[in-house]
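Hi everyone,

Forwarding the result from last night's run.
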Amino acid sequence: MSDYEQIIKGLFERHQSVQTAGFSSDSYKPGLDRIRQLDARMGGPAGRLRCVHVAGTNGKGSVCSMLAASLAGSGYRVGLFTSPHLLDFRERIKIVSDGGFQMIPRESVLEFLDKFDSPDLSFFEITTGLAFWYFDREQVDVAVIEVGLGGLLDSTNIIVPEVAVVTSIGLDHCALLGGTRAEIAGQKAGIFKPGVPAVVGELDPETVPVFEAAAAAAHCPLFFAPEHCRTEYLVEKGDKNRLDAESPFQPSTPSSESVLDRMDLQGECQEENLRTVLCVLDLMGEEPDFEAICHAAAMTGLRGRWETVSEEPLTIADIGHNPAALKRNFGRLEEIMAGGEYDKLIVVYGVMADKDLDGIIPLMPQDAEYIFTAPDTPRALPSAEILRRFLAVRPDAEARACDSVADALRLASSSATSRSLIYVGGSAFVVADFLKLLED
C-alpha cells in the first residue's frame, strides 16, 4: 500500500463518512461553524471563488457535469466538486477544461491534510475545505459546487454563488430533512442568498410556494427552468448543433439528431436537467456549448448515470436509489423491453438499510428476473432480507439472493443471452462494486 493509500485509509478511519457509517453523529455534523473556522484557517478561499451552487434530491450530478462541461467548452478552467465518489476519493474534486478533466493530485490531498486536518471536523467538512482550498490555489475561473445533503446546514453553504440551483425535490433522507416534499424544499432553499438569482428545475405545486417564500425572504430573483428555458435548444437539429470534427469527444450518433439524442447522459430526467443548465447559463450570461454538453460525462468523468458498460448483453448501471429516481429508471426499462429488441430483463439490485424498500418494490418491473445483492458496506441491507420482503409482495416473481455483487453478476451473466438487458443499480455502492470488478 502506498503512502497516499495509507493516509486516505487513515482519513476514513479518523472521520467516519456518510458513505460507510450512514448519518451517525460521527459522520453527519450539520451546521456551518466548523467549516467557517476551517475556511478562516485556510485564508478564506470560499469567499474568493466565482461559483455555482447546486442542490436537489436527484439530478445534481448531471446538472453539475453539464454546467462544468459547457463552461469548459467555452474556454474556462472549471473546478467541479461532487459526491459521492465511486472508485477514487479524488473523483470528488476535479478541474475540467476543454480537453477533459483532471482529478486533484495525490500530493495536493496530502499537503492539505498535513496542514488542516482536525479531529473535530466531519469527513464531508474536510472534503469541502479541500475543494475550496484547491480551487482557490489553482485559480479556477469558476467552480461548480454540489451540495452534500439538504442545503441550509450543508458545509458548502458558506459560499456566495453567482447562481443558486435546486434541481428537483423527492422523498429522501426524510429523517433529516423532513417527511414531505415541502419540508425538504425548505431545506434545499436554504442555499438562496440575497440578490443571487435562484433557479429551480421543476414546477411542483407542493414546492413552488416554498421556493417563492424562500426567495422573497432572501430578497433574490427566482426562476423556474421550465418557464425560463428557451426550449428550441432541446429539439433543434442541423448544422447549428453539429459537433466539431476536431473535438476529442466525437459524436456517437448522427449530427442530424437533437441535442438530447446526442447527449452521453441519457434518461428521461435529462431533459429536465438540460433545461435547468440552460437557464443557469443564461443567467450567467454564458452561451451554452452544445458540443461539450453532449459529452458532459466524458469531459467530467461522471459515471453511473444510466451508463452503458457493455453492449452484449446490454448492461446498464445507475446509482439512482430513492423512489423518485428508481421510478424513472424502472419505467425506462419497461419501455425498452416493450420495444421487443430484448427478450429478458435481469435486474441486479441492492439497497441501503435506511432506504424505503417497501416504497420501491411496487415500482419494480413486473416481467423481470431479479438478483438481489449486498455491496461491501455495513450500511447495506442483507440480500436475503431484500428477497424476503420482495417475495412477500411478489410471491410469483423469479428472484434470488447473492451475498456479493461479484456473485450476483456471475449469476446474471450465466442467465443472460445476447438479447438480454441487465440493469445494475439501487445504490451507488452496488455500482461502485460493479465498476471495481470491471477495472480488475
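The CA atoms of residues 36 and 158 lie 7 Å apart.

Cheers,
N.
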